[in-house]
Amino acid sequence: MKRQRWRQSIITRAALLSWLGLAAAGCGALDDALCENGNCGWSGEIQSRIANLSGLPDSPPADTSNKYFGDTGAQQLGQQLFWDTRFSGNFNGLDSIKRPVPYGRAAKGQPINMSCQSCHDFNRGGADPSTIPGNVSVGAFWDNVNAGTMYNDAYRPLVLWAGRADSLWSQIPGALENAMGSNRLRAAWIIATYYRAAYEAVFTDYPLPMTGALTDVTPTLETAAPLTGQCKLNGGPCPAGCRSVTDGASGATGCFPRFPVDGKPGSKMGCQPGDTTEPFGDAWDCMDPQDQPLVVRVMVNFSKAIAAFEAELVTNNSSFDQFVTDMKAGHAMESTAISPEAKNGARLFVGKAGCSDCHNGALLTDEEFYNVGIPQVGEGVPTMDDCPKGGVCDCVTPNNCIPFGAWDGYAKLHANAYLRTSTWSDNPQDDSRAMYLNVDRDSIPKGSWRTPSLRDVALTAPYMHDGSFPTLEAVVEHYNNGATPMPNGTPNARIQPLYLTPAEESELVAFLRTLTGQPLPPELSSQPALP
Questions:
Q1: Are 490 and 445 in contact (CB under 8 A)?
Q2: Which of 127, 156, 134 is nearest to 459 (CA)?
């Protein structure tokens, strides 16, 4: 009886080999055939989930709000602007909510000599390694978050940790006038002085409003407060080429160049010439209203050129991407693209650890906002206690409640003057971000922040919006432990203990380290020649 059953099993096996066309291939071929696509131990569901994390297109989708997107001249100009420290201002000695700070990039009131690249280092995945201890980025002041990578940001519907901008270019005016401590008039003058030919070759529809250079106007101006930046009178009337202004409320008078050297909007309505509480003696608000849009257009074009360059910062073809290619070909087990430990980590990522619930798609992000129980801690990080009613940061009213993350960012997104639907857009009918603009604000969890992309994540420490975790190991440990209630909101219900073993935690980290793409080509990552 046993011999008959044994004989029957041989016949059945032979019949199966014949049916599969593998009779000559031997037992190993049969074993492979009985696996999913030849990947023994890798179920079809696991393979599908892992494959979903790869396949980033070589080029990001076009941005119709920026018609210079993809323009070679704009990209080259944007790369120069990205590296040029002349667009930065002075250190103000404060943090994001106006508290004095102990140190900065320079002494208070002194030039910080930084560029966009200073906070987006191409040797560190486009993140900011220059700020110590790294909780928040330091530019003209201490920001309230750390500067994340801008690699692959052109694929994303919203940018910045709290989602305050709906395009690459729409966040740059704020960076120029805040993080870099500069202003729209200064930027326009620098472009007119050093980049005129390149600028006007790209932006043929918008010639520069300044006919001269910065060196032509500087010697004619006052250098002592409260008249700094105003035209010298030399005992006579406001000279030709300058504009006499009067504050209707106080009767104060001033005399400014048509295009002052420095200026941006102040906090008070109207023109208060020489008011030391307003930026640069209120030079911007004292300009002819018909000239102001000409300068804003230069700042917008400055932003669109940089965005055209940033859209080229695409990192792909990681060792993980190669593994996915091998897996699809049925070679998961023998693939050497990633280590066995990292392979186990990939399975954990899409399985037991549940990371892919939020970190999915080719960018490893669902583009949503969650409270994942990150403590609002660290030097310069505003807490709920730092934001009393009526304060610069107010979490009671609430108004500018920074610890609320995307809940607060939603209001700032709506207030952004440079949305895709604004008059500064090259396609104001672009409503592709309507789902974010039309969301019910109260549906946004307080204390939530954008799900970051995990591409190049091994290069971009420290982690989270406040740099509260210095290593990938610390990040994985946080999620393994689950989250506890936070003063700034309730963590998402899915953030529960994972019960990973120490070995599994190490495997997850090993997987995350495989997500580093190929380095940017030198022609993109190196400083170009500046005029």
A1: yes
A2: 127
Residues 6+ apart with CB under 8 A from 6: none
C-beta separation of 497 from 481 below 8 A: yes
Single-letter amino acid code for the residue at 399: N
Find the helix or strand (DSSP H, E) in which 412 lies: helix 406-415
pLDDT (tens digit per residue) in 7-66: 333 334 334 333 333 333 333 343 444 455 668 889 999 999 999 999 999 999 999 999
Residue 412: Cβ-neighbour burial (10 angstroms; 0-12, 13-18, 19+): middle
Q: How far apart are CA 507 and CA 502, in angstroms?
A: 9
Q: Which residues pair with 338 in a beta bridge?
A: none
- Count CB-CB contacts under 10 A for residue 330: 17
Cα gap 378→139, rounded to integer Å: 17
User: What Cα–Cα distance (Å) separates residue 357 from each residue in 53, 461, 468, 510?
Assistant: 11, 22, 22, 19
Summarised one tens digit per residue, pLDDT across range 436-465 is 999 999 999 999 999 999 999 999 999 999
Of 25, 98, 171, the C-alpha closest to 391 is 98
Residue with tokens 């936070």: 486
Q: How far is CA 99 from CA 93, 138, 279, 399, in A?
A: 8, 14, 19, 18
* Cβ–Cβ < 8 Å for 400, 392: yes
Enumerate the H helices of 148-234 as residue ranges: 172-174, 184-194, 196-202, 214-217
